[in-house]
Design a protein that fits this description.
7 helices, 226 residues, alpha/beta, globular
């Protein structure tokens, strides 16, 4: 397996109009096939960093280099049109992610089966509950075969049954050593089970990068003192 970097981040900085630095000089690389975690309290810059990697946000300075196709599980359903049906939104989202209509039609039944929306398939998604909406959005991205996945706290989607199913699906996706993954989660056990490396973020900076057990133990000790 090639150890070429799946993701290379160099000096990423985000400054808001009020002068607040949401991210300060973040630099790291995630080798192809590795699973890296972003850990830190709310407001530490984790989600901002993911949005920069996938291009939702543009940095004040710095750069991001990616090797391969990317699927962000960040803002579930961000590309949905509320007036369109699930059937139509599946095709629309696939286009936004760079897939052909014919490819998305081939994946359609698997996506809909996984989402468990049944007879609601041809109803406008604005009529969906928040749980149904999130399950459909998760299913679209989770079924697609991409080289890079960015995951932001999506393992809590839906009811308990669906949470278990989505967690097992994510474990399956992450176990593919041709895929590069960056995941944000507050669950220490999830990160220990799924990740090779943990990056601890604090106040917009990467405080520590290293072995999951070591970094997570240090993080827990830090939080207990705070």
């Amino acid at each position: 397996m090639s150890q070429a970097a799946g993701i290379t981040v160099a000096g990423l900085t985000v400054v808001y109009r009020n002068g607040h630095k949401a991210l300060q000089n973040a630099s790291f690389s995630v080798p192809k096939g590795s699973n890296a975690a972003l850990l830190g309290v709310n407001g530490s810059g984790k989600s901002t960093l993911l949005k920069l990697i996938c291009g939702i946000l543009k940095p004040y300075k710095g750069s991001v280099s990616l090797s391969g196709t990317i699927a962000p599980l960040i803002e579930l359903g961000a590309g949905f049109d509320g007036e369109l049906t699930a059937r139509e939104n599946v095709l629309l989202n696939g286009t936004l992610l760079g897939y052909s209509e014919s490819f998305m039609k081939e994946q359609f039944e698997e996506i809909i089966d996984f989402a468990e929306i049944g007879e609601f398939i041809d109803m406008p998604v604005r009529t969906y509950s928040s749980g149904m909406y999130s399950k459909l959005a998760f299913s679209i991205t989770a079924i697609l075969e991409t080289d890079i996945m960015l995951i932001d706290e999506v393992l809590s989607v839906g009811d308990q049954k669906f949470k278990k199913k989505s967690y097992e699906k994510m474990k399956s996706l992450i176990s593919n050593k041709d895929r590069t993954v960056v995941i944000v989660s507050h669950s220490i056990e999830t990160l220990k089970q799924l990740c090779d490396t943990v990056m601890w973020m604090h106040e917009g900076q990467i405080k520590r990068i290293g072995d999951p057990d070591e970094v997570l133990d240090e993080y827990v000790a830090f939080m207990e003192k705070s």
